[in-house]
Amino acid sequence: xxxISSVQNPFIKSLLQLQDKAKNRKQSGxxxxxxxxxxMLAQKGGYRLITVLFSPEIISLSAVHELTEPDTxxxxxxxxxxxKLAYRDTTEGVLAIAESKSLLLSDLKxxxxxxxxxxxxxxxxxxxxxxxxxxxxxxxDAVIIANPKSDLYNPNIIRSSVGCxxxxxxxxxxxxxxxxxLKAQEIAIYCATxxxxxxxxxxxxTGATALVVGTEATGLTEAWRTASKQNIIIPMEGEIDSMNxxxxxxxxxxxxxxxxxx
Length: 262
What we know:
The protein is built from ten helices and twelve strands. By secondary structure, it is of the alpha/beta class.
């Protein structure tokens, strides 16, 4: 088994670049995953692990074997190297280099009556992670990011989603392409926006539905408001007129889920 003990090793330096730069992830078609649960969820989601690196001072080789396939390369690294690569304070001693998946809209495989979350231009990894966790909790059919501002394989997104990036089908595209895709699939669009809106709980989400949310700062672009079957709003009784995007999305999603259970 290959062993690496120096943080100056060229391969380790390349992994640091893979972590830090979206350009490197895009060019190589790979990204890093940290943590046992995240690696297991990635495998369950159909991601191929190319290499697994582990620190024997933190995790046993037998535990690593449980995470890998026969063709997965395993590299033993020193604790110093692991701590250089690790993103989290609470560490589990294992990382994986995984192959990226296509995030094209055309690759989404939807059931007959899907419930989809669309988020336009979310910027904060924490918000994206929270949206993905909500999507997982609700077992949504897909999450679509329109006009993405962040590389979805950013380690901060993987970390904040606690691996839920891998548990739901996900795609990205321009706002125009996403709207065209939803209309071609005959999926009704409901946009969370202040303009020309009605209370969210008055609408019927039992058919094929896309719930669309924007950023707290700027909301949704005009293209979405125009394409919407109905703009919807969550009634606010306090002094402010908006809430965290992941909280708003959760309210809308679980109303749709409630309707589909009755």
